[in-house]
């Protein structure tokens, strides 16, 4: 015998009674009308007084009551035994045994909350069992095949190395509603589904997620994510419109797949990182107005109400290190390494906090940690409007790009801002301009046609130090006469006089443009 | 008093020695102050390992006088320098052989306000505390600090609703619950009991748990420190379950009034009927 699984797809008592073949028997619900949504697992025809012991729950029992007629105690006990066996409903065919609904049975059924249905017209029970049974089997088969299909698709995606987003998209395609994955703190790690619907769900996520903690009546179906005795998240189908059992099945398959994905992903970037990365990428790219990303930012754990935002870009430290320092300092922010190898940070501070001082504190803590590479922390001015954040993020990235290559030679402040990068910033912006490129080639042709890294490097230092010969000699560990010889060689090859300010400036700009293109 | 208290808790792993542990906490206090925190509470027995995983008299040496010992003095100076209220859960020696699990409370001007001594002392596997501590005898003090009225309820205490209530009756606005608790043992309680206490007593609770596995046993301390408001909502996210973390949160005390206007638990409690609770 199969065990009774409440989650298996089933027809409800109400649905059975509404079947066309059943309607022919003129069913009337005479008791337990409030329980008609109970699932019917099976239909059982039984003319036995002790039918209760044969049941395992969820059955709709059909009887003519021929063994019960005339004995009210027996009738009452019969109903009670069905109730104890958790039968779904009792259907009594009126006829010789009971010409009308028996009062005792009706009263007891009402008291137990067991739906009691009488059929006013003679009705071949076999038709009903056949009809219901075949529907149930079809449904079960459909559920099993859906379950297998979903599992197959998700497993194929996982083995093909698909990212989390692809899995979620697939789940959303099946469920037709927004799908949200969160950690235990209700922080959203991933979403899928139609954008407007997802945004609606995320708008007030924290509150909604906590309130919807209880029942699944509103179509919220959740499955826990975890393994090896540890829970670490959950997946939620938000407002699933199909029947609950199918939704349950989808959620369970999705949860299995996500657990597998995470276990196989192992050392790869965590979902938290992926979610931060996709948020910051979308912010920086500007393809979606920042305002529309607010729900996602909030759901990803970034406080956004009445906050000051500080856009930062960092070179020389990995994203997870930055994340650690943020946590260590108790600062709220999202961190991700974006395309191009620059790590981007968006800090969210309370309005009364000193953004400049905290940014400096953050930079100092970053520098004091282990790590050999020089750290460059670039910041854009703080913003109070979220709409201004993308421009700030781009500005910070621009600043870090402009100085990252030559951070050691330049005397940079702890937090570099647009004002500190001067000409380098401008050249960086213009580096892809063909006119600038041909200008740089023309000006430096004498050195570039036969590349001499030593001469280029001396020239770079000489110009960066403001044509300070003793400093340049010192930095290159050469004597002054040796430096003079190199400078003469440079001047000869370029055909310029570096003592002439305008010619030197022109070579300097060309060299900056050349370096910017090399990055 | 400002209606918003910027409060902080700090969770960290055992570094291996007392001095570096103290330095980590000094830095945390500086970080918290840099963010404008008004008050910061450390984890239980903050400058030591959680030695109660074993029963070894060698660890009695971690106990210090409160407030006359060097650690309290050191942090009094730091509190004065940074202008921050500090709650220091530590091992206290009242006199040789008389030891308590204590928290000292230092006001933002560096003055020592008093101490709370842990009342309920556990004795279960991995938490052999009766070996180290006498049950506290401090009653239920609430300290009127520059950051608001603060109570402390240490670790195992939190399983007993009576102390939470006593702190509420004494006017606490925030109760800190510094702890050292292990994954398998209390995971299912950690986000249940303190929020329930916050609701029942209508104040904020700051819960702190250390992180990591230490050399004295298998206890896997799971951090997850957090603040919870009088409606049982976490204020921001709970901290990491593995990493050192400073949690700084704004606690809006207007919420406390709002909730107490809605639910008059303090008015409707019936102390006259509670006699059996205190019968020995």
UniProtKB/TrEMBL annotation, chain A:
Span of domain PucR C-terminal helix-turn-helix: 455-513
InterPro entries given in the database record: CdaR-like_regulators, PucR_C-HTH_dom, PucR_C-HTH_sf, PucR_dom
Listed transmembrane segments: none
Domain called Purine catabolism PurC-like: residue spans: 16-135
PANTHER family linked: CARBOHYDRATE DIACID REGULATOR, DNA-BINDING TRANSCRIPTIONAL ACTIVATOR ADER
Name the UniProt record assigns to this protein: Purine catabolism regulator
Lineage: Bacteria, Bacillati, Actinomycetota, Actinomycetes, Kitasatosporales
TrEMBL record, chain B:
Enzyme Commission number(s): 3.5.1.53
Domain CN hydrolase: 4-253
GO molecular function: N-carbamoylputrescine amidase activity
Record keywords: Hydrolase
InterPro entries linked to this entry: Aliph_Amidase/BUP (IPR050345), C-N_Hydrolase (IPR003010), C-N_Hydrolase_sf (IPR036526)
Domain of life assignment: Bacteria
Keyword Transmembrane belongs to the record: no
Name of the featured protein: N-carbamoylputrescine amidase
Species this chain originates from: Streptomyces griseomycini
């Amino acid at each position: 015998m199969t065990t009774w699984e409440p989650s298996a797809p089933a027809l409800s008592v109400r649905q059975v009674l509404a079947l066309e073949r059943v309607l022919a028997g003129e069913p009337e619900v005479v008791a337990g009308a409030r329980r008609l949504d109970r699932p019917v697992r099976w239909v059982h025809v039984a003319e036995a007084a002790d039918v209760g012991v044969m049941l395992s729950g969820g059955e709709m029992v059909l009887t003519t009551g021929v063994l019960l007629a005339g004995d009210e105690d027996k009738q009452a006990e019969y109903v009670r035994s069905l109730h104890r066996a958790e039968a779904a409903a009792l259907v009594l065919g009126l006829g010789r045994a009971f010409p009308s609904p028996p009062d005792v049975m009706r009263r007891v059924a009402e008291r137990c909350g067991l739906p009691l249905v009488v059929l006013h017209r003679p009705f071949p029970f076999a038709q009903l069992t056949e009809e219901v049974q075949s529907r149930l089997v079809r449904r079960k088969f459909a559920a099993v095949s859906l379950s297998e299909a979903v599992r197959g698709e998700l497993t194929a995606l996982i083995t093909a190395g698909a990212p989390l987003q692809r899995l979620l998209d697939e789940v959303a395609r099946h469920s037709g509603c927004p799908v949200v994955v969160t950690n235990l703190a209700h922080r959203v790690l991933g979403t899928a589904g139609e954008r407007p619907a997802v945004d609606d769900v995320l708008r007030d996520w924290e509150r909604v997620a906590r309130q919807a903690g209880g029942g699944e009546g509103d179509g919220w179906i959740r499955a826990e994510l975890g393994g090896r005795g540890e829970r670490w998240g959950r997946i939620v189908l938000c407002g699933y419109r199909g029947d609950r059992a199918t939704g349950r099945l989808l959620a369970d398959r999705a949860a299995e797949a996500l657990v597998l994905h995470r276990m196989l992903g192992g050392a790869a970037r965590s979902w938290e990182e992926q979610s931060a990365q996709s948020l910051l990428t979308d912010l920086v790219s500007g393809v979606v107005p920042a305002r529309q990303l607010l729900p996602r930012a909030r759901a990803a754990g970034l406080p956004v109400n009445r906050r000051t935002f500080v856009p930062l870009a960092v070179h020389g430290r990995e994203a997870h290190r930055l994340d650690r320092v943020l946590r260590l300092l108790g600062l709220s922010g999202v961190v991700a390494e974006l395309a191009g190898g620059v790590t981007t940070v968006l800090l969210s501070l309370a309005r009364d906090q000193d953004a400049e001082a905290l940014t400096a504190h953050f930079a100092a803590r970053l520098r004091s940690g282990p790590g050999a590479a020089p750290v460059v922390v670039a910041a854009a001015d703080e913003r109070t409007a979220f709409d201004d954040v993308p421009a700030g993020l781009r500005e910070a990235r621009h600043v870090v790009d402009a100085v990252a290559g030559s951070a050691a030679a330049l005397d940079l402040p702890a937090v570099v801002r647009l004002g500190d990068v001067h000409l380098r910033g401008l050249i960086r912006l213009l580096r892809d301009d063909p006119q600038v490129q041909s200008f740089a080639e023309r000006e430096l042709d004498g050195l570039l046609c036969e590349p001499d890294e030593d001469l280029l490097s001396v020239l770079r230092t000489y110009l960066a130090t403001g044509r300070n010969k003793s400093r340049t000699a010192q930095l290159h560990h050469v004597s002054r006469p040796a430096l003079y010889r190199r400078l003469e060689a440079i001047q000869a090859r370029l055909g310029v006089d570096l003592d002439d300010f305008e010619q030197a400036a022109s070579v300097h700009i060309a060299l900056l443009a050349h370096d910017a293109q090399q990055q | 008093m400002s209606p918003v208290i910027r409060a902080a808790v700090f969770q960290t792993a055992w570094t291996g020695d007392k001095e570096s542990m103290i330095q980590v906490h000094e830095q945390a206090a500086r970080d918290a102050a840099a963010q404008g925190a008004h008050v910061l509470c450390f984890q239980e027995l903050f400058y030591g390992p959680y030695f109660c995983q074993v029963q070894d008299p060698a660890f009695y040496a971690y106990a210090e006088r409160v407030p006359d010992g060097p650690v309290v003095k050191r942090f009094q100076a730091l509190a004065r320098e940074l202008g921050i209220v500090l709650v220091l859960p530590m091992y206290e020696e009242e006199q040789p052989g008389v030891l308590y699990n204590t928290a000292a409370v230092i006001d933002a001007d560096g003055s020592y306000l008093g101490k709370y001594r842990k009342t309920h002392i556990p004795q279960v596997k991995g938490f052999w505390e009766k070996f180290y501590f006498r049950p506290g005898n401090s009653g239920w003090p609430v300290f009127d600090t520059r950051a608001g009225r603060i109570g402390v309820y240490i670790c195992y205490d939190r399983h007993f609703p009576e102390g939470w209530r006593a702190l509420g009756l004494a006017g606490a606005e925030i109760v800190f619950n510094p702890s050292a608790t292990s994954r398998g043992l209390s995971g299912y309680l950690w986000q249940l009991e303190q929020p329930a206490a916050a609701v029942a007593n209508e104040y904020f609770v700051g819960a702190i748990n250390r992180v990591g596995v230490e050399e004295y046993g298998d206890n896997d301390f799971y951090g997850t420190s957090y603040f919870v408001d009088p409606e049982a909502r976490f204020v921001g996210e709970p901290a990491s379950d593995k990493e050192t973390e400073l949690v700084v949160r704004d606690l809006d005390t207007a919420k406390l009034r709002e909730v107490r206007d809605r639910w008059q638990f303090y008015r409707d409690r019936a102390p006259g009927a509670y006699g059996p609770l205190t019968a020995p």
